[in-house]
Amino acid sequence: MGVVIIDGSTVRDFVSNEAEFNKSADDKFEALDLNNDGVLSRAELRKAFESFRLIEAHFGVDVATPPDELTKLYDSIFDKFDCDNNGTVDREEFRNEMKKIMLAIADGLGSCPIQMALEDGDDESFLKQAADLEASKTSSA
Ligand SMILES: [Ca+2]
Ligand SMILES: [Ca+2]
Q1: Which residue ranges does the record assign to the EF-hand domain (predicted)?
Q2: Are 120 and 131 spatial neighbours (Cβ–Cβ below 8 Å)?
């Protein structure tokens, strides 16, 4: 385990590598699709957000947010993912929205880097994968 500094360009590099990004998104999608029906339900996606703490930060959630507020917030996030409003999120919708979120996070980071701890076995977050990419660049340079 180590620490790596990431900024907006790290995240943007990660997202712009379409093959890698889609693979990560698909892996994530499969992990989240708990009943393996090929789509994410509201409950499945909510579970995902509870593990993406940085995304919660992006949407302005903090630990003091009351449960009913959280439910409203997760509903609104789900609606963003569910582009065709059919009540489920398919693979394509998931990829597209994750990409938008990561780019928004990249804009938010801008040139103001954050420190990420690299912990073995923690592959929960996309930012972690972006951080790994940065770490591999640094170590091979
Ligand atoms: Ca499912
Ligand atoms: Ca849909």
Answers
A1: 20-55, 69-104
A2: no
What is the rounded CA–CA span in Å between residue 63 and residue 113?
Answer: 23
Task: Tell which CATH classification among 1.10.10.10, 1.10.1660.10, 2.160.10.10, 1.10.238.10 matches the domain 2-140.
Answer: 1.10.238.10
Ligand 2 centre from 92 Cα, in Å? 9
pLDDT in tens, 23-76: 999 999 999 999 999 999 999 998 877 766 555 555 655 556 677 887 888 889
Ligand showing the shortest atom-to-Cα distance for residue 39: 1
Which has the closest alpha carbon to 74: 90, 93, 50, 40?
50
From the CA of 33, the nearest ligand is 1
Tokens of 118: 């690299």
pLDDT of 80 strictly over 70: yes
- How many CB atoms sit inside 10 A of residue 41's CB? 17
* Ligand index nearest the alpha carbon of residue 90: 2
